[in-house]
Specification:
The protein has 817 residues and is of the alpha+beta class. Helices cover 15% and strands 34% of the residues. The relative contact order is 0.09.
């Protein structure tokens, strides 16, 4: 091709994709998709239900539609891996819950709880006996503590200001009459100002100790950040009377990130960060101390002290005591785990963890309860004595085991209650139903010798949620109820602890989730939330399964647009997210349901249905390998194989033509999208949202990759679509939030990917959304994302003839001259 013609093609491609000159970007106004889409985006969200601890009331938390970008644009402090609002002394972000109401299960009457206008609700916590709800109310720049009385459906303010909500700010005391609250301390002075002139450079130093730190965002950048974070994170613990609002200060102010009263209410377990703060890791890895206070604020015992946790290997845990918590079935006893392998999963070890317990006043030596072959992940205590289900997990085999352990008598041999591959959804026994014990703690309920379990009930035909009971003695299982018919219904909670009455969330493809009460053979519908977009009721939907070339089973939910007629060949969008599996059997399992409500909200790919596209949503792209250490070695080959099978299936089933197909995804799905365009010619175009494309920028692992860049440089190179940008000859739309806070998906990833494709004469468009993070929350951003996506596919995918084919023909013609 002549240089002149090549230059002309570059200009045409960039001009077409960007609507700009070849040498400049521009600030564009927010755009709108068609009005029918705007109406769906603005449709109200249904409330979120919560069953009270005494199982007689359902709390409905009413949500609002998308906030304007102006709410996202409030001043933000990006500190220690957090995003904070200095004006409120809490987390940054728009409100979500804007109202509360309660439904009495005896009368089925719904009563609203009156709240101040233009306020938001957060940190909602039930009292131990279920008679009240505590929550934080946000109005403007003020955070206040409120309590609602369930019987009267009224709410009152307890603390008008000074709530410190950087971390979880409130918890109930076991007596149900007091709250443990984090306050901003009196006399802390004004908000620190960042100096215009720094006092000196920021320095860091390494001293020969391995420290493989992931690519975190929003970290502290210097002393000024550290001072501001210290000012915001300093809390004073207070005991607040839930009736009068009177507050009694407990202990001294500190960088307190966690506080938990003992089950008997006589002690408080405190987690507190210590200086010096780190510039390399988020707050959760800062030096910290865990200690116990009595109710007079006197320190009883230091339980653990940790240095900065920048030494933890990929997939590892800290050395020393971790996961320190109260034993829910004991008045005042702490439990914790300690690594036997130095916290390093690469170390060969017959046993990886030990579990310990120590009883107040913490003067006696701790007692070792058990040792686990694999990594310990906590214990869920039961109503029976001091027994609990302890969980361990093998990250290599993905096998999870649950043991029934007697913490009162470690000499009693643990009994194996569950062992399975954690990805084996068909074998998932579900989760146990919980109840509040005498201390007000949530524990596994045991009724007449049975534990009751609820779960998704994955089957080859899709999810069929269930309620079962399991013998506490033999672990034999008996199914009580299972969802059937062309609906999706799952258990919210038990009303009668013998399983004779329970609440469910019920939905079908045209009806949003509603709350139902099952009592014997009677079924009572307690709510009647309407379909927010009835105009889409005629969308056709099917859960399909099929096989790729190597025999691995794949699945996808297929949506066909309104007005679709059998035999029509329509353009198709494939929306996917690759996952890693140890074996083909678990990779091929069906997950999801063909009967769930077809909710279309936010930037959902289901909006493509409004524009006449078919959608293959959650199209499985499994990466299968028996060795998790090397599973990514065949990532590209398996990805392409899955994509070919998906597109072939759309043709075989008669709704796709195999030509007008786009691939799209978010985050790791965006990474997948760019890789498929670089390594295949299966798709006409792609849409990649908030992705990472250059894996050398995440050198200490990514997703399930355990090796560092220096251990497997060829894998990092081969899996980086940035390195293969010259092979991307299909149009690629890149969308990214300017303030993405997800580890690894820096906005720079999309900016450099755009430059790489552009620099190699590719067709690419980059959309950077102001004030948006990894997911998009502002109304203007959501609507703009949809408008951009529709326009991109209408330009490059919808036409019968491939618009890019003419460019290819011109290039071939030029080359023959």
């Amino acid at each position: 091709m002549h240089a002149r013609n090549r230059f002309a093609r570059v200009l045409a491609a960039i001009g077409l994709a960007m609507g700009l000159t070849a040498t400049a970007a521009a600030q564009e106004a927010y755009r709108l998709p068609p009005q029918e889409v705007v109406d769906i985006v603005d449709a109200p969200l249904p409330p979120f239900p919560s069953l009270s601890p005494n199982r007689d009331v359902v709390l409905l938390m009413h949500r609002e539609a998308l906030p304007p970008v102006s709410e996202l644009a409030r001043p933000m402090e990006r500190l220690a891996g957090l995003r904070l609002d200095a004006a409120t002394n809490g987390r940054h972000g728009p409100r979500s819950v804007v109202g509360l109401s309660v439904i009495d299960l005896d009368t089925q009457e719904e009563r609203p709880i009156a709240l101040p206008a233009d306020s938001g609700v957060s940190n909602t916590v039930w009292s131990p006996d279920g008679t009240g709800i505590a929550f934080v109310l946000t109005r403007g720049d003020a955070l206040s503590l409120w309590v609602a009385d369930i019987e009267t459906a009224t709410a009152r303010e307890l603390v008008a200001s000074g709530i410190n909500a950087v971390f979880s700010p409130i918890s109930w005391m076991p007596d149900g009459e007091h709250l443990l609250v984090h306050l901003t301390p009196d006399g802390r002075g004004p908000l620190p100002e960042r100096p215009r002139v720094p006092v000196g450079p920021v320095t860091q130093e390494a001293s020969g100790v391995e420290a493989q730190v992931r690519t975190y965002q929003d970290l502290l950048t210097g002393p000024a950040d550290a001072e501001l974070f210290a000012w915001l994170a300093t809390s004073q613990l207070a005991l607040v009377d839930a009736g009068t609002g009177d507050a009694e200060m407990i202990g001294e102010p500190g960088f307190i990130y966690a506080s938990d009263p003992s089950p008997n209410g006589e002690y408080i377990l405190v987690g507190e960060m210590e200086r010096p703060f780190s510039y390399d890791v988020p707050w959760s890895s800062f030096p910290d101390r865990t200690y116990v206070l009595d109710m007079d604020g006197e320190e009883v015992s230091t339980i653990a002290r940790q240095p900065v946790a920048d030494y933890v290997p990929i997939g590892g845990v800290i050395r020393g005591r971790r996961s320190i918590s109260w034993q829910a079935s004991h008045p005042a006893r702490l439990t914790w785990a300690e690594a036997l392998d130095g916290g390093d999963p690469r170390v060969e070890a017959a046993q990886r963890d030990s579990v310990w317990a120590q009883t107040a006043p913490f003067t006696a030596e701790p007692v070792e309860i058990l040792r686990t072959e694999d990594r310990y992940y906590g214990t869920q205590f039961t109503e029976v004595g001091q027994t609990g289900f302890a969980t361990e997990y093998d990250r290599d085999t993905r096998v999870i085991r649950r043991w029934l352990v007697d913490f009162a008598d470690p000499s009693v041999a643990p009994r194996l209650a569950e062992e399975r591959n954690i990805q084996d959804s068909y074998a998932d026994p579900g989760s146990p139903v919980t109840a509040r014990n005498a201390f007000g703690r949530s524990v596994v309920a045991v009724t007449d010798g049975y534990i009751y379990m609820t779960g998704d009930g994955a089957t080859p035909e899709g999810n069929r949620p269930f309620l079962s009971r399991v013998s506490f003695d033999s672990f034999e299982t008996e199914e009580i109820w299972r969802n059937s018919g062309e609906t999706l219904e799952s258990v919210i909670g038990l009303i009668e602890m013998d399983g004779s009455a329970f609440l469910t969330s019920w939905e079908d493809p045209v009806t949003p989730p509603n709350v139902r009460l099952h009592r014997g053979s009677d079924v009572i519908q307690l709510t009647d939330f309407e379909n927010p977009h009835p105009q889409l009721n005629d969308i056709r939907r099917e859960l399909i399964t099929f096989e790729r070339e190597d025999g691995v089973m794949l699945s996808s939910t297929v949506y066909l647009p309104v007005g679709y007629q059998d035999g029509d060949r329509v353009p198709v969008v494939v929306w996917a997210y690759p996952l890693e599996y140890n074996d083909a059997a678990t990779a091929g399992q069906v997950r999801g349901s063909p009967y769930e409500f077809s909710r279309i909200a936010g930037t959902s790919p289901r909006f493509f249905l409004t524009q006449g596209y078919a959608l293959m949503e959650d199209a499985t792209m499994p990466i299968v390998g028996s060795d998790p250490q090397t599973v990514n070695d065949s990532f590209i080959d398996q990805l392409v194989m899955s994509a070919e099978a998906i597109v072939d299936e759309s043709v075989r089933r008669g709704f796709g033509d195999g030509e007008r197909v786009a691939v799209a995804g978010h985050s790791y799905g965006a990474f997948m999208t760019a890789n498929l365009l670089a390594h295949s010619d299966i798709f006409r175009a792609g849409i990649a949202r908030s992705g990472a494309y250059n894996r050398t920028l995440t050198p200490f692992g990514f997703q399930a990759e355990r090796r560092t860049y220096w251990e497997a440089p060829e894998v990092y190179y081969n899996l980086s679509p940035f390195m293969h940008a010259d092979q991307i000859n299909e149009p690629l739309l890149l969308i990214h939030g300017e303030m993405d806070n997800n580890s690894g998906t820096f906005p720079l990833q999309s900016e450099r990917m755009f430059a790489a494709v552009k620099g190699n004469a590719g067709t690419v468009r980059l959309v950077m959304l102001p004030y948006e993070s990894h997911g998009y929350r502002g109304r203007e951003s959501v609507l703009h994302t949809l408008a951009e996506s529709f326009d991109w596919l209408d330009r490059y995918v919808r036409p019968e003839e491939d618009p890019m084919a003419s460019d290819d023909a011109e290039e071939a013609s030029d080359g023959a001259q």
